Amino acid sequence: MKQYGVLVVDDSAFMRRAVSQLLEEDPQFTVVGIARNGMEAIEKVQRLKPDLVTMDVEMPEMDGLAALKEIMKKSPVPVVMISSHTGEGAEVTLQALELGAVDFFLKDHLLKNPDEHEHAHHDFIQRLKGIVKGRLPNVTVTQQPREKKERKLKPRKIELVFIGCSTGGPGALQKILPCFPADFPIPIVVAQHMPPSFTKPLADRFNTLCNLNVREAENGIEIKPGTIYIAPSGYQTRFKKSDNGSIKLDIDNQSDEQALYKPSIDISLSSAAPIYGDRLLAVILTGMGADGMQGCGLVKKHHGTVLVEAEESCVVYGMPKAVFEAGYADGQYEITKMYHKIITFL
User: Any idea where the Response regulatory domain is (predicted)?
Assistant: First the structure.
């Protein structure tokens, strides 16, 4: 069994101990070192060569963002941010994801009693495994199926682009969303797995980067061209057709025992597929798990089109892999090619 070495970076001894204990409960992780600030982190990344770094944001001498910049320049390695659950914490976390961090976790989720929050601790470990395994060399998708799928792809006129993503999603979205021109003629809806209170700052941040308007979706809003709608975290987002033919978003926080995520890509696509039929383009990007697979099955049943991100550019090749292996993907592409493929459907 391969072991993965982790460097734990935090100025709090309590937090370093808490994260280290969580990691070492799993035999596949070993803590190869700790650092108390960004300066120590940079030096120890170069010396210890960990497979993964967990990085606090606020630290003395050099904070997590400054350290992340240097690590990405000098010794690139997957870095996961440990974030506070505040408005300011969300802003800084999104900056970190733009600078190259692959994921983030909330401190309060990691510190809670494991008996009460076993799922949060399990999710932490599983997502870290997905990240380190996704970054191993010589992991590629076989070329023949992909080429075969792409040759069969016949672009058709679409009326909605729906993008679903999870782990690594903000970085992937940054390579796509700013590419759309201001006169892009159809709406775009994005479902990104994030904790509550993070999707509004995500939308605000992308609004400064994109030619299109970007906003967090609201209940009852009519979706129109010229706007990218970010599905709000903590809620389910469904599509509904009005009597006058307009399409609105129905957003609620009703529990669904089968839905692990809010927003759930499966739930959103299940409502969009029968409305849009062959005019729907679903794009599944990097992420852990299989959310989106069932929804993409319905997209295909209603003659829509499904594109997935190729393994080579995914932080975690989980969601795209599930869709691809189920036979629902019409093609899979590295993230740098995805925008160019999307616009062929106009």
Answer: 5-122
124 and 167 assigned to the same domain? no
- Residue 146's alpha-carbon distances to 151, 201, 270, in angstroms, are 9, 36, 25
pLDDT of residue 144: 32
Give the start-end residues of each E strand in the chain. Answer: 4-9, 29-35, 52-56, 79-83, 103-106, 160-165, 188-192, 213-216, 227-230, 236-241, 247-252, 280-284, 305-309, 331-333
268 is catalytic: no
Domain of residue 28, CATH code: 3.40.50.2300
Instruction: Please measure the distance between the N-terminal and C-terminal CA atoms of the chain and give it in whole angstroms.
Output: 48
Instruction: Tell me, yes or no, if 193 is annotated catalytic.
Output: yes
The first and second tokens of residue 270, run together, are: 């299940």
Among the listed residues 20, 56, 121, 193, the single catalytic one is 193
Of 268, 291, 313, 330, which residue is the catalytic one? 291
Nearest to 269 by CA among 177, 124, 161, 110: 161
Is 306 a member of any domain? yes
Assess if residue 281 is contained within a domain. Answer: yes
pLDDT digits (tens, 9 = 90+) for 302-317: 999 999 999 999 999 9
The H-assigned helical ranges of 54-182 are 64-74, 87-99, 107-111, 118-134, 143-152, 169-174
Residue 139 in any domain: the answer is no
Instruction: State which of 109, 134, 159 marks the end of a domain.
Output: 134
What would the pLDDT profile of 77-131 be if each residue is shown by its tens digit?
999 999 876 666 788 888 899 899 999 998 887 876 655 556 778 888 999 999 9
**Within 10 A of 29 (CB to CB), how many other CB atoms are there?**
21
Q: Given the residues 166, 264, 271, 313, select the one marked as catalytic.
A: 166
In DSSP terms, 30 is beta-bridged to: 5
* Structure-token pair, residue 59: 């630290």
**182 and 310 part of one domain:** yes
- Domain-ending residue, one of 115, 134, 153: 134
Q: Is residue 166 annotated as part of the catalytic site, yes or no? A: yes
* Residue range of the domain that includes 336: 144-345
Task: Specify whether 80 is located in the same domain as 225.
Answer: no
For 143, the 3-state DSSP assignment is helix
